[in-house]
What we know:
By secondary structure, this protein is mostly helical. The chain has helices at about 1-30, 30-50, 50-55, 85-120, 125-135, 140-150, 155-185, 185-195, 200-205, 210-235, 245-260, 260-285, 300-315, 315-320. The protein folds into two domains: about 25-285, MetI-like fold (Orthogonal Bundle); about 300-330, no CATH class. Helix 7 runs antiparallel to helix 10 (about 210-235).
Amino acid sequence: MSSMSSAVAAEELPLRASRVSALWGFCRRNPLGTLGALVVIVMMIMAAGAEYLSSYDPTANDFGAMLGPPDMQHWLGTDQFGRDLFARIIHGARTALQVGFVSAFVGATLGLILGVASAYFGGWFDLVFQRIMDVMMAFPLIILALAVVAIFGTGAVNVIIAITIPVIPRCARVVRSSALAIRQMPYIDAARAGAFSHWRIIVRHMVPNVMAPYLIVLTATVGQAILTEASLSYLGLGVQEPVPAWGLMLRGGAQEYAESAHAACVALSARQIQRRAAKSVSGIRLSRPTLEMPAERQPKGPVEEADRVRRRAYPMSHIARRAAPCPVGFLNRRRPHRV
Length: 339
């Protein structure tokens, strides 16, 4: 029994090593995307362990330390009610992540299903659905979110609904463009000939093949959803006090911060820029496939290495060497050599 377990462990060891090496190779080929993902992971860890990173209650008032400067007790100072800014920032990350991820995931998923269904059925359904999407995309995200909040009211749940609705047409339009090409594939015709249901064809055969644009839209929308939540909270239409939120922190004492607590302005602005940049960088790196070969597949000889360097310096040189056919057919005929 022990010999069998040791043999299984010996077989799993190279598999784990290969996975680690593949992950390390991906990080080396995509340093910018890795940096963005690392920032997002650190922010998620800070939001999850907010109680352990700060001993202050983000909702407790201390009127004896209002608008205090940064010191050893309050690392980023205090606000106009004496509340610790560092504690409110890391607890506000929970609100931002909850609203951003939930609204982006729900909106992108609904857009994925509706976009694939629109491309699959076509006809009048596709025509009517796309016109509705055109009407919704005619309004900016923040304007449409303001309209939804004005109808449903404020609160975290209503803010999620308000941000989810504008995300649906943006993801549906991108996914539909990819699903139109997949609908013409032979395996879709074979599934129809096999009398499979429309739901099974859409979910089992079409949705998995449009996951790449879906993931790109999802990652790009999370940062936009976080900024929209902060904007709604700043306008007083998002989450309400005493819930810690970044938009509420700016709305509550923007003028006092600018006049008396400069560190608070810098900390809040840097936090928003850092989160937005990290989400955008991660989405951009997902949308740009790497063109560099893995290290184990690169040529090792001196001739191959020189050719690879030349191709990187002059990308079109190896293509220009090939004799491209002339668009005029009779000019491609071989002519006899004249002496």
